[in-house]
């Protein structure tokens, strides 16, 4: 996978917190300027830049994780060359319990850890492209509701791509369910939704 795709992210520090602003996944050897797909997920995992550089000045190479490999499967299925991943929160933490504990603290400190925060409008306008399909895939945890609704309000797309939890307007299933069969089903469903999106846009 790493030979077929180049994965780079922009890492920075927000006071004492390790963060990632965005992640770009591009097919190796393909010159493309703008993303084919915008993906919005919960938050970055704990893995940082390969070179350890999180000074917020330059992009750094990233070792892709299993969730990002799910995105590359979607990219292959749809012949996409470039996907950009942003998150409801930039905070790097792989454990949900620790993440939500940290979010309570960081919110109390009024630190703008989300690209969807009004204080981060410049980042949003610079990094988010609304002329391409937008994939919602941040999960279904009830504690995400405020962040998810804030993101949906700012993105304001009538046709998001994702697998919505029935009856819950802010909840969209994560790309990496625990079972391999469900992971394959997620990729197949997103692929079908993206082809449907293309058809609707062409009409």
How would you characterize this protein structure?
The protein has about 200 residues and is an alpha/beta fold. The chain has one domain: 3-Layer(aba) Sandwich (Uracil-DNA Glycosylase, subunit E). It contains 5 helices and 6 strands; from the N terminus they run ββββαβααβαα. A hairpin with a 2-residue loop joins strand 1 and strand 2 (about 15-25). Helix 1 packs across helix 5. The mean pLDDT is about 90.
Give the structure's gist in a few sentences:
With 203 residues, the protein is of the alpha/beta class.
CATH architecture: 3-Layer(aba) Sandwich
Radius of gyration: 16 Å
Query: What count of structural domains?
Result: 1
Total count of strands: 6
Structural class: alpha/beta
Distance between the termini: 35 Å
Broad shape: globular
Strand adjacency order, main sheet: 4-1-2-5-3-6
Overall pLDDT: 91
Return the string of H and E elements.
Answer: EEEEHEHHEHH
CATH topology: Uracil-DNA Glycosylase, subunit E
Helical region count? 5
What are the key terms here?
203 residues, alpha/beta, Uracil-DNA Glycosylase, subunit E, six-stranded mixed β-sheet, 5 helices, 6 strands, 19% strand, globular
List strands and helices in order, with pairings.
Elements: E1 5-14, E2 17-27, E3 37-41, E4 59-61, H1 66-78, E5 82-87, H2 96-108, H3 121-127, E6 134-136, H4 145-155, H5 180-202
Parallel strand pairs: 3-5, 3-6
Antiparallel strand pairs: 1-2, 1-4, 2-5
Helix pairs in contact: 1-5
């Amino acid at each position: 996978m790493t030979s077929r795709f180049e994965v780079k992210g922009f890492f920075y520090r927000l006071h004492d917190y390790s963060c990632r602003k965005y992640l770009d996944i591009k097919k190796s050897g393909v010159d493309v300027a703008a993303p084919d797909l915008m993906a919005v997920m919960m938050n970055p995992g704990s893995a940082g830049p390969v070179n350890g550089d999180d000074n917020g000045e330059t992009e750094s190479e990233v070792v892709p994780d299993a969730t990002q490999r799910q995105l590359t499967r979607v990219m292959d299925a749809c012949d996409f060359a470039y996907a950009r991943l942003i998150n409801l929160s930039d905070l790097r933490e792989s454990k949900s319990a620790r993440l939500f504990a940290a979010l309570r603290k960081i919110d109390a400190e009024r630190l703008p850890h989300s690209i969807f925060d009004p204080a981060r409008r410049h980042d949003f306008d610079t990094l988010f492209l609304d002329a391409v399909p937008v994939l919602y895939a941040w999960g279904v945890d009830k504690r995400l509701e405020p962040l998810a609704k804030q993101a949906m309000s700012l993105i304001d797309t009538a046709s998001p791509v994702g697998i919505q939890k029935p009856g819950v307007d802010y909840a969209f299933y994560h790309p990496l369910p625990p079972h391999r069969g469900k992971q394959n089903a997620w990729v197949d469903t997103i692929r079908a939704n993206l082809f449907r999106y293309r058809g609707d846009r062409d009409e």
